[in-house]
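User: I'm new to structure prediction. If I give you an amino acid sequence, what do you actually give back? Let's try with this one:
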Amino acid sequence: MKCPFCGASDTTVADTRISEDGDVVRRRRRCLSCDKRFSTHERAEIRMPRVVKKNGSRVDFDREKLSASLWLALRKRPVTVEAVDAAILRIEEKLLTQGEREIPSENLGEMVMRELKKIDQVAYVRFASVYRNFEDVDAFSDLVKEVSGARRRGESGGV
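Assistant: Good question. You get back a string of structure tokens that encode the predicted 3D arrangement of the chain. For your 159 residues, that looks like this:
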């Protein structure tokens, strides 16, 4: 590590501490040339995949956009912030564990629908009706029947 004071590359680590949540390492360093001390902070660099839209354009994954989409579907539904945050974390973890540099927006939409189906069936139907772009009432009716049947069989959570 280069000294920020004199530019020398000969420094030593005097002290290392890990943050309370464990995701940042703070190192106290000493320059062997000028004897000044400085701190560095290390954190893991995590890259979310880019989202490939239907038109072929690529955009950065946006956690806020994902959250807004979920909350739009959940509008006026009795779902806690914690449940939504947990769903977002599960989606992000799945994206990271796949290890892909890009993901089609359709795959991301399917992940969102699976999470919504777990936490609120009405929100799931709302999101699916827009996401799947139903052409007629019959397709919408089939989705509602699917959710109703799953609920009777006890396959999914929600209200």
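You can read the tokens as a compact description of the fold. Here is one thing that stands out. Residues 11-43 form one domain.
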